[in-house]
Amino acid sequence: MSLSPSFYKNNRQNLAEKLEKGCAVILYSGREISQSLDAVYPFFYDNNFYYLTGLTESEMILLMVKDQEGKVSEKLYLEENDPLTVKWVGAKMEPEEASAVSAIQEVAYLPEFTEDLCSLENIEIYYFDRTPPKHQSLALEEESADHLRNKSAKDVGPLIADMRLYKQKEEIDALQQAIDITQVALETLLKNLKPDKKEFEMAALFEYSVRLAGAEGLAFPTIAVSGKHATVLHYIQNNATMAENTLLLLDLGARYDGYCADISRTYPVDGRYTGVRKTAYEVVLEVQKEMIQSYQPGAEMKELQNKTRELFSEKCFSAGLIPKDHDIEDCYYHGIGHSLGLDVHDTKDKRDYTLTPGMVLTCEPGIYIQEHGIGIRIEDDILITEEGPVNLSKNIVKEIEEIEAFMS
Ligand SMILES: [Mn+2]
Q: Fewer CB near the terminus (10 Å): N or C of the chain?
């Protein structure tokens, strides 16, 4: 998995342009984390490292230097394969393979990193990635730490976050693939949705179908929650039996070439929307459609949030779901959307966006009413363009008649 080498090369060039003269950037792919004895947690590479290299293995370092004249050089460092580890867990990438993926010409083994770093002259500013998680930050050798003493250290995270917020053609294609695979897997799930099954059967079926359809895995742990537990936003126990006359709230997504789909749908366990569940579903669907239309260039995330609140207040009251003086925050207590990309909640340090062409944002209004024991969320992934919003997940069923027909 990875996009074209020129994509990563361009990203590095764009980053280099943002840097001042006389600085170096040090990025690290991450380390394997021990789970217990000789078992390790599944490794997940640093997304900023991936964005600049396309590489997904542990213990890789990228060193970029912009000298006092503004000349940029880049070099990649890899762990050397040792024959015993190769026998047990397989070989890691060799320099020529890593070079082919990343379009980085100079590739060496890790011990050279310390040497190269310590021999840098006239470089006073060092950029590190301070994006969480902390346990993935690079641990420097003592010599390197000595070399860096009295130099200025900066965070490269915000610079890369600014770039990642705007999606390029190849990234949108990857997101579309992730969404299309999510659709296929969701349809398999929907065909098998019935009362008396367990929530985890639905989650497992989705996860199996996603892999089968060609994704490398999940964008995030699948949420499959029925009935009254659906008022818990990130419920991932998924162990209840699904009852008749309840809804199943699904929040899930496939990951493709590193890019995440993030889709929510709320389906009737027994194939029919009835009673208060139907009323509430209609309200959420109406609000969602109206909000998608509001995803126009120039709109502010804060305004969109306020507008969602107002729409819900008005519609929930007129549908008889809540009393007039009810605080809507009791039933709608999350954001209308977030940026989507290599991370599901992409580019953490930038949440107050002005919507701009090239951004991909989720639109996910939801209501959660304790009194009725219901939670409903509908989420699509929206590309902002000059011509207005483009719903990348428009083919995933959400109209009542379509869903009921599909399940019958
Ligand atoms: Mn989301």
A: C
Handedness of CA 201, 205, 208, 210 (dihedral sign): negative
Q: How far apart are the C-alpha atoms of 339 and 123, rounded to whole Å?
A: 35
CA of 197 to the centre of ligand 1 (A): 26
Distance 361 CA to ligand 1 centre (A): 9
Angle, CA 155 vertex, CA 153 and CA 159 arms, to 5°: 135
Tell me the CA–centroid distance for residue 339 and ligand 1, in Å.
9
Domains of the chain: 5-164 (3.40.350.10), 169-407 (3.90.230.10)
Q: Tens digit of pLDDT for each residue in 143-177?
A: 999 999 999 999 999 999 999 999 999 999 999 99
Q: Cα of 290 to ligand 1 centre, how many Å?
A: 18
Phi, psi torsion values for 377, nearest 5 degrees: -140, 140
Cα(382)–Cα(311) distance, integer angstroms = 20
pTM higher than 0.85 = yes
